[in-house]
Design goal:
Rossmann fold; 10-stranded mixed sheet; 12 helices; two-stranded antiparallel ribbon; 335 residues
Length: 335
């Protein structure tokens, strides 16, 4: 090992004195607010570390990732790069974001729910400033001459894009992990481990908040009786070990959150037992999602536990309710 590398990695307390004093002054260990008081009890948006979202298909992983992106722009003016092939190509992603940011109104003029021209124009300017979409459906192979879409090539591209734009991203979304081109010649677990090491290295090096979504494997099912004595089957939240490649994610993960859609019968029974949040969900088409924080690193960024948010079917946005059931939601101003 040469002396330059040795001096760089071996650090004493005095070498970091300024940074430690700053942490002492501003409480830097905790990340930025999510925009939701209930979520802030358990997680935060911590740059330099990944935030991993797991769950079965359709649970709401991508929707929550997009919500965190929107909230970070509203609250912190962050800039994002989005890779989300499952959501669609760039046009489809921007179309969906524009709708979300305009109370669910559509961009299509023939629709009775179309947004105004002024709102549409403002959204284009807003998105141009804060979000870029990497459209792998429009020719990653053509642009990069067949280079695999693995995390090393992905982050190398981001570095070039930032240089060209003369601007830096605050956050990166990779949605989902299984859309990447992972070389499995060395074995699945070894390859996944190597990809996650790349994720951690680049996230730390460039001080991004990287959101990575991942599917859960088939989970356990149980039988339970409803209030009428009839049996039904339901699945509990996936444990972090039940995520796809769960062993490696469990080892390399920092903030690991399982997004869980509860069975309607469970919601109904909990509501009848006096749970006011479940009563709210029962009155609003079973619109609750539970977020199970299964791992929380580094120390101080959050804590393990469970919080709930609710889905606004019209606005296509999450919201929370306070302790007496009042709906709280941050909307875009002047649109």
């Amino acid at each position: 090992m040469n002396q330059e590398i040795h001096d760089k990695i071996l650090k004493g307390a005095f070498d970091l004195r300024d940074e430690l004093y700053m942490n002492r002054k501003v409480g830097k260990l905790r990340g930025a607010t999510t925009g939701f008081a209930k979520a802030d009890e358990y997680i935060s948006l911590k740059k330099g570390y990944p935030l991993m979202l797991g769950g079965v298909g359709g649970a709401g992983k991508s929707e929550f990732a997009f919500e965190l992106i929107i909230q970070s722009i509203l609250n912190h003016k962050w800039r994002w790069l989005i890779l989300s092939p499952e959501t669609g190509n760039a046009i489809e992603i921007y179309t969906y974001l524009i709708s979300k940011m305009n109370d669910g109104k559509e961009i299509f003029l023939p629709s009775d729910y179309a947004m105004k021209d002024e709102s549409f124009s403002k959204m284009l300017h807003f998105l141009q400033k804060h979000i870029k979409v990497l459209d792998v459906q429009d020719g990653w192979d053509d642009v990069f001459s067949g280079i695999d879409l693995n995390l090393k090539n992905f982050f190398s591209y981001i570095e070039k894009a930032e240089t060209q734009m003369k601007a830096k991203f605050d956050g990166i979304l990779v949605d989902p992990f299984n859309e990447l081109d992972i070389d499995l010649d060395g074995g699945i677990m070894r390859s996944v481990k190597d990809e996650l090491k790349v994720l951690l290295r680049y996230t730390k090096k460039h001080n991004y908040l990287t959101i990575l979504t991942n599917h859960a494997n088939d989970v356990r099912t149980f039988q339970q009786k409803d209030d009428n004595g009839l049996w039904y089957r339901y699945s509990p939240p996936a444990k972090k070990e039940e995520w796809a490649y769960g062993q490696q994610f469990g080892r390399k993960g920092y903030q690991m959150i399982t997004v869980y859609e509860m069975h309607p019968k469970v919601i109904e029974q909990m509501a009848h037992a006096g749970d006011f949040e479940m009563q709210h969900a029962l009155d609003n088409e079973f619109n609750v999602r539970e977020f199970h924080v299964q791992k929380s690193k580094p120390a101080g960024v959050g804590k393990r536990g469970v919080f709930r948010l609710f889905w606004d079917w019209k606005k296509k946005r999450f919201y929370e309710i306070d302790n007496i059931g009042i709906k709280k939601q941050i909307n875009f101003p002047s649109l």
